């Protein structure tokens, strides 16, 4: 067998036979074949960390649910992406995200443009059965252009990764552990006093209303995270 042939994997996703290159993840192959798997922390152009767990899939012969974004394809793998078990898990994960902080869609600047809200609707989430934690979290509006509202943050770390991997500034990071985790700038400085380059990439990739542009409060507030593949393409061309 040639090296080229050995680099090609054949697997089945939702009863559809597909081919993949060695090293690709299940999520990458599914997207290439127009098989939708819900995600929140994944974003094309950034590294994958498997943080949100919404992309969990079933693999025949494995009792565990595995995150599609960081699970590499194997020859002969049989994957299920939308079973009843997976739907139940995804609704529970979304309930946990809504209950953990203060996601009140009707008064959020990203209402109608929020990926968390959209996924809740797509997964048929009509109510949250869990008690809301309602933590007392701050809002940092010290930056001249942007605001961070920790009440809306789901710790997807997109802002951390885009700042490090695309902008190269390494301003954002995560402080604390478990339910006490929060995103911070520099060594927990106010955003306005940080070493932020003011590029706004972190705001564009945020899937909720945690990071937003002050100039768009009270108006239509879309974000455009799909600029990342273009940036990567342009950098490779240079």
Plain-language structure description:
With 238 residues, the protein is α+β, with helices and mostly antiparallel strands. It folds into two domains: 80 residues, Roll (Ubiquitin-like (UB roll)), CATH 3.10.20; 151 residues, Alpha-Beta Plaits (2-Layer Sandwich), CATH 3.30.70.20. It is built from seven helices and ten strands. The strands form three sheets. The chain has a five-stranded mixed beta sheet, sandwiched between helices. It has a three-stranded antiparallel beta sheet with strand order 6-7-10. A hairpin with a 2-residue loop joins strand 1 and strand 2. The chain is globular. The N terminus is likely disordered.
Q: Topology of this protein?
A:
Blueprint: H1 3-6, E1 8-13, E2 16-21, H2 26-32, E3 56-59, E4 62-67, E5 78-80, H3 84-100, H4 115-122, E6 139-140, E7 146-149, H5 158-167, E8 172-175, E9 182-185, H6 201-205, E10 211-213, H7 228-237
Largest sheet: 5 strands, mixed
The helix fraction, in percent, is 25-40%
Q: What structural class do helix, strand and pairing data support?
A: alpha+beta
Query: How would the global form be characterised?
Result: globular
Radius of gyration: 19 Å
- The share of residues in extended strands comes to 15-25%
The total tally of domains equals 2
- For the record, the CATH class of the largest domain is Alpha Beta
Going by CATH, the architecture of the largest domain would be 2-Layer Sandwich
H/E element order: HEEHEEEHHEEHEEHEH
Total helical segments? 7
Report the CATH topology name of the largest domain: Alpha-Beta Plaits
User: Which parts are unreliable, with pLDDT below 50 for 5 consecutive residues or more?
Assistant: 1-5
Spatial sequence of strands, sheet with the most strands:
2-1-5-3-4
Record field, number of beta strands: 10
Distance between the ends:
36 Å
Mean pLDDT: 92
């Amino acid at each position: 067998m040639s090296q080229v042939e050995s680099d090609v994997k054949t697997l089945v996703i939702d009863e559809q036979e597909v081919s993949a290159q060695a090293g690709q993840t299940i999520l990458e192959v599914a997207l290439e074949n127009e098989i939708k798997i819900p995600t929140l922390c994944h974003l094309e152009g950034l590294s994958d960390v498997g943080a949100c767990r919404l992309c969990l899939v079933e693999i025949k012969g494995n009792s565990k649910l595995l995150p599609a974004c960081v699970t590499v394809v194997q020859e002969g793998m049989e994957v299920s992406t939308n079973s009843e078990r997976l739907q139940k898990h995804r609704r529970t994960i979304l309930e946990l995200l809504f209950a953990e902080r203060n996601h009140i869609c009707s008064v959020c600047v990203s209402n109608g443009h929020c990926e968390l809200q959209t996924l809740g609707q797509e997964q048929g989430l009509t109510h949250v059965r869990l008690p809301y934690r309602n933590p007392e979290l701050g809002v940092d509006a010290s930056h001249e252009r942007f605001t961070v509202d920790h009440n809306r943050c789901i710790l997807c770390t997109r802002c951390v990764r885009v700042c490090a991997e695309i902008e190269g500034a390494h301003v954002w990071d995560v402080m604390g552990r478990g339910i006490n985790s929060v995103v911070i700038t520099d060594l927990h400085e106010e955003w306005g006093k940080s070493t932020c380059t003011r590029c706004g990439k972190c705001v564009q990739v945020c899937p909720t209303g945690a990071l937003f542009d002050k100039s768009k409060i009270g108006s239509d507030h879309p974000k455009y995270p799909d600029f990342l593949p273009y940036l990567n393409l342009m950098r490779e061309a240079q």
